[in-house]
Please model this.
Amino acid sequence: MSLAQVHNAPHRSALQAIRANLDACFLERTDIVDGVLTALLSREHVLLLGVPGTAKSDLSRTLCESLNSANFFRVLFSKFTVPEEIIGPVSLAGLQRDEYCRNVKGYLPEAHVFFADEIYKANSAILNAMLTALNEREYVQNGVPTPMPLQTVIGASNEFPEDSSLEALHDRFMIRYWVPSLQSRDSRRKLIKSNFTQSSGVSITLDELALCQREVEAVIIPDAIHETCLDIWDAMDEEKIVASDRRWRKAMRLLQSYAYLHGFDEVDEDHLEILNACMWRELKEREKLSGIISAQANPLSAKVEVILASARDAATSVGTMPAQYDESGRNQWVSAAAEAQQQLNTCLREIDELKVKFSNRKQRKAEIAQAKVREMNDTIKLQVARLFNI
Model:
């Protein structure tokens, strides 16, 4: 089978269809969608931090609906949550047989995706059960460790753990994101004007997912990437950003999964960006960590992202095209459009200069950014032509 045939195999196509659907459903959540799917491929767990109402639970449920025949389990934790609410109540019939069993139907032991809302309100009584579930994917049934089909846990919280007893639980979440409210005016407009429906019919079977997970193991991590990871680790030590040895070991699987998700069979320097979501513990560390990873991995990609953000601001500043009969508004809009096009052309030149300066680095993201800037420029040109009926 050729490489193209492998990449177009049904299970890979299904994975990409799910990715596209989630990206379309959840505005300004591309990085988080990729992170959640990376966690799913590597059978790791994701922590989503942020204020309520930012679609954390919707994303979790939609992910589960994308897994054909998968079970979804959700718990809103409080200090009064008891183990029976998580792993099921004790079976009275079992006790009559002198067996200590639980009725697990509809509870965590049968779940493929678990959404743990307000996870850091969990009390010490359920920590051991939670850690065993997250680590070993097991629960104890009549004294016997019993496997669970759990693929990933998506935890949510609007606060960091304050109790030191929660540190072990916090470290089990390999990927962590701060989820802000929508930032761009365009996204906010889409939100209030559109009727988003998460159900699209795209799905992947659990067998197909298992095949993807096995193929992840075959993704190559070159020695150069291992060395760059060590350089990042050293730089983090200098900045007092601490990540456990276990986290670094598991991060290699994340790199493989992230590369696989993007259609690659070998990890390259651009894929190291997933470490931005893996190696921080406190919010104040994120910006510094991003600088470390960019400097060691691919400074070209980091600089291009800044230029691309500037280009988006320029394109957005043009605003809505006025009616043709509004001469005053038309002249102002045309002037804003001309200024934006000038800024976009400057962005294109800056990216070209960076590509030359960093010619020894991967150019993929720079080329993608240029294509996006050209698309913005073409859109404005088309609007100008439409305004004047050209």
Observations:
- The mean pLDDT is 88.
- Residues 299-387 form one domain.
